[in-house]
Design brief:
Layout (H helix, E strand, L loop, with lengths): L1 E5 L3 H11 L6 E5 L5 H8 L3 E7 L3 H13 L4 E5 L4 H10 L3 E4 L7 H46 L3 H15 L3 H14 L4
Helix pairs in contact: 3-4, 5-6, 5-7, 6-7
Length: 192
């Protein structure tokens, strides 16, 4: 596992590093410079990012939330103090674990596991949502194509669907692709 530790304080970063010392096959990289942070993290290709921000200003916190939005990785963020707005912003930014005043080497492993599990659970939910949205869009396209065929060719709904299915089978394509082509062609031909 590759772990990136982001902390402007090398001393605090060493405490996190100490908490990871017991992990087997763990490659740890420490980033202490904020400039070019996203590019540096991307170059390391970590499996998880641990950020210790101590007591950050609002601007610094926003900057790290922006980094979190860009990275598609589990992120655990350690802060000394927080408020509801910061917690909400961290959730919106995709932070997997937001730990307030709970920084201790012996807790790092549990927090790391939590961040990875929450990230994976969220990623599964996002994939399911994307899949459902895709299926809904396909279904809407098929329904629109059936309406076009029913109106333009005087077909019943089952016959319109059968025509879409037959064309898809003949061309070795998905019904949704054929349906989208029908809808697009109808739009180009001035249909409404």
């Amino acid at each position: 596992m590759r772990v990136a530790i982001v902390d402007e304080s090398a001393a605090r970063a060493s405490v996190i590093h100490e908490g990871l010392a017991g992990l087997e096959d763990c490659e740890v990289s420490v980033i202490t410079e904020r400039r070019g942070l996203v590019a540096r993290i991307a170059a390391l290709k970590p499996d998880i990012v641990l950020m210790d921000l101590g007591n950050p200003s609002r601007d610094v916190l926003e900057e790290y939330f922006a980094v979190s939005r860009v990275l598609a990785r589990p992120i655990a963020m350690f802060v000394d103090d927080s408020d509801e707005e910061s917690i909400g912003a961290s959730i919106d930014a995709g932070v997997s674990a937001y730990v307030v005043d709970g920084f201790a080497p012996h807790r790092i492993r549990a927090i790391l596991d939590l961040a990875v599990r929450r990230f994976n659970a969220f990623a599964r939910l996002q994939a399911d949502l994307d899949d459902a949205r895709g299926k809904l869009a396909e279904r809407e396209s098929v329904d629109a194509a059936k309406r076009i065929l029913m109106k333009s060719r005087g077909l019943s709904e089952p016959d319109a669907y059968a025509a879409l299915r037959k064309t898809a089978m003949d061309q070795g394509r998905k019904i949704a692709e054929i349906a989208q082509a029908v809808v697009t062609a109808h739009g180009l031909m001035g249909g409404n």
